[in-house]
Amino acid sequence: MKVAIFIPCYVDQFYPQVGIATLELLEKLGVSVSYPENQTCCGQPMANAGFEHLSTECNDLFVNNFTAFDHIVSPSGSCVLHIKDHLHSVQYEKDALHIRSNVFELTEFLTDVLKVSDIKSRFRHKVGFHQSCHGQRGLGLSQMSELVAPGFSKPEQLLRMVEGLELISLDRKDECCGFGGTFSVSEEAVSVKMGKDRVADHLKYGAEYITASDMSCLMHLEGILKRQKSSTKVIHIAEILNTVK
Amino acid sequence: MAESLSGSSGSDHATLATRFNKDESRVDWHDETLWFIRKKRDKAAWQIDEGEQLGETASQIKNNVLGNLYEYLLQFEENARANGIHVHWASTPEDHNKLVHEIIAKAHISRVVKSKSMLTEECHLNEYLESKGIEVIDTDLGERIVQLAGEPPSHIVLPCIHWKKEEIGDLFSRHLGTPEGNSDPQFLTTAARLHLRRHCMSSKLAITGVNFAVAETGEIVVCTSEGNADLEVQLADVHIACMGIEKIIPQRKHLGVFLRLLARSATGQPITTYSSHFRRPRSGQEMHIILVDNGRSERLGSNDFRNALKCIRCGACMNTCPVYRRSGGHSYHYAIAGPIGAILAPGLDMKQHADLPFASTLCGSCSNVCPVKIDIHDQLYKWRQVLTKNDHVSETKKSGMRAMAMVLSRPRLYAFAGGATRWLMKYLPFVISNGLNPWYKQREMPMAPKQTFSEWYLQKKKSK
Asked: Nearest Cβ partner of A186 from B14, B20, B368?
């Protein structure tokens, strides 16, 4: 099984510890992981802003970097969804299709491919789990509150394996945090209000940490928490799962 | 009213939403009010076992309608005419408004009553008729409230959801003569009832919308909470029903699907209080139906945007939308607000509504609650591409995106540029962390780490 990790651009630049945790976690679980060194971005920042047509070269680069692998794993539901839905290449469409069909968000890779039933980690804190929309509604990592269907959650399934971790419940378990890429600056007022409301829900139930499978949501929530001088911190789910027992 | 609807004041969604957010406690109240309705909708959805199946059936019926619209429309026209109804066709809002006015003028009437109709909002019928000296009284309570206030509705099902009862008390004391300071809902609705009944009883012409038009029988169905459409129509000599051409359903039995879905999705009720069937004019009455296109047939030809025509106007996508709840209906500066409005409006006027598809985080909750399974958030994404390709985008954004695309497709340049950005953030935080950066206004910037992940990885590899 040839596995490559895709570390999204903003994680590479601002949250290297999330990439490190992802790599270490997979290695601990016995996976031999490659990191194609020429990788940059999934192209979503351009595409969601309406500039999908400018992401051609970025897409080709992505295809070239990852086509040789059986599985591509990334600690971001949003980037993975973008690849799954929008990675195309005029030149290498067959390779693009291979990648679209074999790209996984980290937690679903753990639960569905590796079928992890035991995680050797300890995290003695009250943790609120933020459902990032693209992972949840796009990739189906967790059941959605809008649907009449039995509940499940792949990330929460993993968090429940962590020793000492107390998962809090929220008033609105799957409301968007308001990050939304360029939305966070072009619609600053609504974006911040959405983020403040999410943070308040977690704080109401005593979260010491807010975790998620997308660092972009957490970057936005962290910005708000820090401005409020809150002691509550954000942490990517890979970091929790990689905490040494 | 026309100005605030058309957005000709030059304000886009972000600007109007920023204004709405000046009063945070009001935003909280607005959000909670609509979230309460979303929760009612969830409860109603869970109460029937076949909820998801019902939605799938509705979606398939609508697909069938859109695939055979031409035949169904002709069938409807033929059957309606056989029932003694005058059927008219209008391709534009202007045609529609003229037709309505001609019918009113022929009857020598100067005041008409009108029940809820989003189509007439879309066509700006009230403004048109008022410019011709005809007074229009909206008989839906919520619509009457916003009409008295000189505003357009802020929600398609709950037109005055942005108004508090105390404010309605003040409005009524000014317009209906209720005692100042009385905001008791029971008292105010009774006052409104007397006021609206008086108008219904004295009006010779009634305008209604149409929720469903049954091709098989040539009848229309109008759903109201207050029974105002029945009252209007039964008391009037002339009835004009206005509908978009997509309101057709093939057979009467299909109402069993749609009537069960409409109110459940809209307000969480099992069925709308009044589902009124109008099949033929009563003896001595004149009945007209105006079928309006206004861009619908063009959208029918678009693979990407066709299925927005399945919309039954339940408003569920607005109630669930975290952006709508925190920006208010008027921030969308179009007759139909929220996610569905944001995919319908650019189809009518790309330039004027270029901002709306960007007023979303693409969270996807709208598509999940849609009872007829419209891929709303995917269409928002697709509209963004269309708008950009048609150059409805600022030069700043264009050049920024070009630069970003260039960096992200060149790994070495990316490694260099990323380093520079982090260096700036570390040593010159004021360069980025200032008031001009919308991120920093209410949020801290992420901390610049010593090393990127790729730098760490290369170092690790070397040391091995």
From this structure: B14
A38-53, pLDDT tens digit by residue?
Answer: 999 999 989 999 999 9
Is CATH 3.90.320 correct for A126-241?
Answer: no
- Give the torsion sign (CA, B131, B132, B133, B137): negative
Q: What is the pLDDT of residue B433?
A: 55
Name the closest residue on chain A to residue B18, using Cα atoms: A189
pLDDT for residue B7 is more than 80: no
Chain A contacts of B404, Cβ < 8 Å?
A: 45-46
Residue of A nearest to B361 (CA): A180
Q: What's the pTM?
A: 0.95
Q: Is the ipTM of this complex over 0.90?
A: yes
A9, A190, A224: residue with CB nearest B323: A190
Tell me the nearest-neighbour CA distance from A125 into chain B, angstroms: 23
> Given a cut of 90, is residue B446 above it in pLDDT?
no
Interchain proximity B446–A51, CB inside 8 Å: no
Instruction: Give the gap in angstroms from C-alpha A88 to the nearest C-alpha of chain B.
Output: 15
* Residues of chain A numbered 61-100 and touching chain B (CB < 8 Å): 61
Three-class HEC string of chain A: CCEEECCCHHHHHHCHHHHHHHHHHHHHCCCCEECCCCCCCCCHHHHHCCCHHHHHHHHHHHHHHHCCCCEEEECCHHHHHHHHHHCCCCCCHHHHHHHHHHEEEHHHHHHHHCCCCCCCCECCCEEEEECCHHHHHHCCCECCCCCCCCCCEHHHHHHCCCECCEECCCCCCCCCCCCCCCHHHHCHHHHHHHHHHHHHHHHHCCCCEEEECCHHHHHHHHHHHHHCCCCCEEEEHHHHHCCCC
CB-nearest partner of B408 from A9, A14, A197? A9
Range(s) within chain A of domains with CATH label 3.40.50: 126-241
Please indicate whether, in this complex, the C-beta atoms of B442 and A192 are within 8 angstroms of each other. yes
Domain residue spans of chain B = 408-463
Residue B431 confidence (pLDDT) above 80 = no
